[in-house]
Automatic annotation (TrEMBL):
It is a peripheral membrane protein. Its EC number is 3.1.2.2. It catalyses: octanoyl-CoA + H2O = octanoate + CoA + H(+); decanoyl-CoA + H2O = decanoate + CoA + H(+); (9Z)-octadecenoyl-CoA + H2O = (9Z)-octadecenoate + CoA + H(+); hexadecanoyl-CoA + H2O = hexadecanoate + CoA + H(+). Belongs to the THEM4/THEM5 thioesterase family. This is Acyl-coenzyme A thioesterase THEM4. Keywords: Apoptosis, Cell membrane, Cell projection, Cytoplasm, Fatty acid metabolism, Hydrolase, Lipid metabolism, Membrane, Transit peptide. Residues 53-124 form the Thioesterase domain. It is an enzyme of class 3 (hydrolase). It comes from Amycolatopsis acidicola. GO terms for molecular function: hydrolase activity.
């Protein structure tokens, strides 16, 4: 069985660094593309529409999660999100290229505080703040051990 804790983000066949679910497609299915420095281009695919022509709030949170971790991954190859808060300031249009600027507010040991702003032109559509952690070396094996110790599901639950 492969060692889950040896997992690292590797370039896909397209050369783009992607998380596991997107590797087979070779593109980020959330529509996040790193630009220069801490800038990212993000476009909400229409299938993430939550209302007519506007993004589902879950997509906005997921895009921020991806951007904030990618920003920290430039320094540290193993990250997880501990908390994420989003302020939804204006509806976010689908199929429009938006800009996101990330910022590392604080990094001490395993602890990271990060923030980001999503804009269209001069307008801020949403902001995010997150606490990230450098993943402990046994993060995934601890998870598997805990899961293996749970009772098997029955037809009643
Ligand atoms: C140039 C480069 C470009 C790169 C281009 C990349 C492109 C591609 C980018 C894609 C980027 C997407 C990135 C998404 C990133 C997420 O979204 S990660 C998924 C969401 N987050 C999670 O699943 C984390 C779940 N939470 C946790 O595992 C834990 O709460 C935390 C966050 C690790 C806790 O951290 P902590 O506060 O430092 O506390 P810690 O002392 O580690 O643990 C506290 C307690 O939590 C529990 N715990 C912690 N860890 C575990 C564990 N693994 N198993 C079980 N229990 C645990 C334990 O009860 C522990 O208490 P003890 O029993 O040890 O006393």
């Amino acid at each position: 069985m492969p060692d889950s804790d040896s997992f690292t983000i590797e370039p896909s066949s397209s050369g783009r660094m992607l998380c596991g679910g997107c590797v087979p497609d070779g593109v980020c299915r959330l529509g996040v593309e790193p630009r220069d420095g801490m800038w990212f281009d993000v476009t909400c695919p229409r299938h993430w529409q939550g209302g007519p022509g506007v993004a589902h709030g879950g997509w906005i949170a997921a895009a921020f999660d991806d951007v904030l971790n990618t920003a920290a991954l430039r320094t540290e190859p193993r990250m997880v999100t501990k908390s994420l808060s989003v302020e939804y300031l204006r509806p976010v249009p689908v199929d429009r290229k938006l800009a996101v600027l990330a910022r590392i507010e604080r990094h001490e040991g395993r602890e990271w505080t990060v923030s980001a702003r999503m804009t269209l032109g001069a307008d801020t559509l949403a902001t995010a703040h997150a606490e990230l952690r450098t993943r402990r070396p046994d993060h995934y094996s601890r998870h598997e051990h805990w899961l293996a110790g749970l009772p098997l599901p029955t037809n009643e639950n």
